[in-house]
Amino acid sequence: MRLRPACPALLAAVAAAVVAARPAAAEPRPAATGPYAEASLGATNFIGTGSQHSRLGPAFALRGGIDVFSWVSLGGRLEMETHQADVPPPPQGEYFQLYLGAADARLGFRIGRVALFADGSLGLAYMSTNILAQVDLLDPGERWSPFLSAGGGLEYQLQNRHYAFGVAGNWMVLSSFAGMQSVGGRGYLRYTY
Amino acid sequence: MSRRRTRPARPLLAPLALAAPLALVAGGLGACADDPVYVPSTAALEFTPGDEAEPATAQLVLPIRLETEKEATARADRAAELGVEVPYVTRDDLDLSLEWRIRNLDPDPGIAFIDVNGANEFFAYVPLAFVEDPEEEETPPPLCGNVPLEIAGNGGRSGVFQEDLLAEASLDLELITRGGVSPFAALLMVDESLTEFDAGGAALPRDAFASLVRFDVDFRADRHMTLEFEVRARDHRNLLHDDLADAPPDELTQFAPADFAPPPPPAP
């Protein structure tokens, strides 16, 4: 198809209009910094040896802390996970919970409305039952384990500078529970005061 | 470059948005008190049928920690108040269930029976103790079980004696022993709403009913089969030792229940 002579001029005008109409892409959306609270809902699955004896389960978490600078935050979190145990019967169809408490650190930067971040935690986990002792993932009487987790995610800043939504993923290792490892994903709402 | 005006924050939204996960986490932490503990039996029972075959038997004793001085004093005070012995482990302290799995090692289908008897800290229930003349008298039923279970050839089957059933078994044992009720009457009636019973002239209230602390499991079948079982306990008073069966013996309460012998019939 051949372009009519008027077309190049028209295209140039449209392109100029588009450029003029574009939002200031480099301008970060205003976001509050300071104390924050975050609530998340997600799912966690064990990998490696733990995956044979527990199933994918929901995870709920609360985080709180403070943005020390716009690119670094320090805080803590409380989390609960529920999993179905998959051990040779008996028992059968039983569930266990994992309660986590940890210190959190997060590093990130913002590009416009979106922030990218990496985070890490160090804390203690408590397992609600001894059901995994049957498959030697727990020692007799053992319910507590230190854990380490690391991950990252994306955060979308709403027009209201206090609110942001995000998605994130993480990996965790429970050193005392035979080194059980898990991976998880979560969606969250963050409120910065 | 123009700065956009931001809308004023609505602080009420944040607490609302955080409330649901907070409730879930808090509720989960609160639920810790009732988390179950699994007490496995030592080994699988294996039964091979034959003319003279006796049931395969196993005993599982709950690993109960030692009683503290404060608990012993409170129990002694309560016993003095009631005029009857009060157990260290009451029926309200533990919710127990017994989970089992049978495997049929024979290619032909078969029938299996699990009988669950046991003991509280005072008495053990032994059905045969109630039979003076085996030719003439019927043996009383076990506390739980004695139900035919069909097992497919080379197959398996799982099941549970649930909490309400074992709570009833604990009460039946109390009725048979301290209550002096016939085992046939105690075991055939459901007494879950019983709030007290007469124990030798004194009223024994519900909060002083003893719990089962020992399980005596008999297993028999018409084929070559195995039985594995374990006790699931929801411990409301933190009575089970953290290390369960691996705990040092001197840190566990050694109960010595007597086999209950029924009183002789009144002289004519």
Q: What topology does this entry show?
A:
The complex is a heterodimer of chains A (193) and B (268).
Chain A: H1 7-21, E1 35-47, E2 57-69, E3 72-84, E4 95-111, E5 114-127, E6 144-157, E7 163-174, E8 180-192
Antiparallel strand pairs in A: 1-2, 1-8, 2-3, 3-4, 4-5, 5-6, 6-7, 7-8
Chain B: H1 13-30, E1 36-40, E2 45-47, E3 56-61, H2 69-82, E4 94-104, E5 110-119, E6 123-124, E7 144-145, E8 149-151, E9 156-161, H3 163-177, H4 183-188, E10 196-199, E11 202-205, E12 214-221, E13 225-235, E14 258-259
Parallel strand pairs in B: 6-14
Antiparallel strand pairs in B: 1-13, 2-13, 3-12, 4-9, 4-13, 5-7, 5-8, 5-12, 10-11
Give your account of this protein's structure:
The complex is a heterodimer of chains A (193) and B (268). Chain A is mainly beta. Chain A is built from one helix and eight strands, in the order H-E-E-E-E-E-E-E-E. In chain A, strand 4 and strand 5 (114-127) form a beta hairpin. The longest helix of chain A has 15 residues, at 7-21. By secondary structure, chain B is of the alpha+beta class. Chain B has one domain. Chain B has helices spanning 13-30, 69-82, 163-177, 183-188; strands spanning 36-40, 45-47, 56-61, 94-104, 110-119, 123-124, 144-145, 149-151, 156-161, 196-199, 202-205, 214-221, 225-235, 258-259. In chain B, the strands form four sheets. In chain B, strands 1, 2, 4, 9 and 13 form a five-stranded antiparallel β-sheet that branches. In chain B, strands 3, 5, 7, 8 and 12 form a five-stranded antiparallel β-sheet that branches. The termini of chain B are far apart. Residues 1-9 of chain B have low confidence and may be disordered. Classes of the chains: A mainly beta (193), B alpha+beta (268). Chain A binds chain B through residues 24, 27, 30, 32, 37, 39-41, 60-62, 78-80, 82, 89-92, 94, 97, 99, 126, 128-131, 133-134, 140-141, 143, 159-163, 189, 191, and chain B through 1, 3-4, 6-7, 9-10, 13-14, 17-18, 20-22, 24-25, 28-29, 31-32, 35-38, 40, 99-101, 158, 160, 228-230, 232, 241-247.
